[in-house]
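Protein Entry — a single chain follows
Next Lines — sequence and tokenised fold
***
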Amino acid sequence: MSKMKNTPDSHNRVSFTTFIENTRNPELKFTVSTRGIRPDIEMGIYLKIFYMYLPLEQIQSVFGGTTFNSLLYGGRPTSTSYALTNEHLQGLEDLHIKLALTLSNHYFNEEVYQQSYSLLKHHHKSGNMLNIVSDKLAQRLRRDFPDYTLNASIIKNLNTPEKVTSGLGLYDNVVVPMDKNDDDAFLNGLPQKDRIILFGNAKCAYNCPARTCYAGFSQEIQGKPVAAHCSKGTIPRPDLGQVYFNLEKLHKMGFSTFKLIPDKSEQLVKEAIARTLQNAPNTSQNK
């Protein structure tokens, strides 16, 4: 099979309608972002609003951060206004959904590790996950907190079979960059597909050739001078908005676990939040 390129004429993107139909396959598992979470929305309600097309039983974990200001966070700017509270964490327990902390900062040393030690200890249980960029951090976690499932973050850019194979030697799972969803030859050639996590949808990172913002977020979180920024101003590319991938085809290739991000721009979501907040005072946690 020929290699698929990330071009307008050669891709594995589908319409939102087709994507929703694809998610109804009970063999698929999802880890979903909490980047739209708010303190005034319960966890079960959040999931039903932002992922209204997805059965809760197919959500394996949610990824994000808690109100603990860890210096190991990365991937996007942190905000306690959009972090998981104790009530959200209890909601996850009630729903039997695991927590995946995004400890994807580029920079690791003993000081930042000790700063986050209590966070790591508190959530250390079988099934909970950590999304990691630093191999040194992953090695330390293997020793100190062996019950965590370690995921190699997309930010590591493991975009060749050799890099993926190497990553699987240290991490339990590898998250593949979403632009590689269009490369059939690459995907078909990957080993241990049950340990590969693909993005089910994506935004600007999909067709970004640089992804320099990630390093900038890491620098900002640790109080370092921010030397890396979004590349949109220097490397022009089309604004594709939110894109959705052909989960049916990817599943037939052997993949069954997908990462999802919410689309907060959808008017339907905004209206659902407004309705929820109007009626929320006596709403109990979904179970």
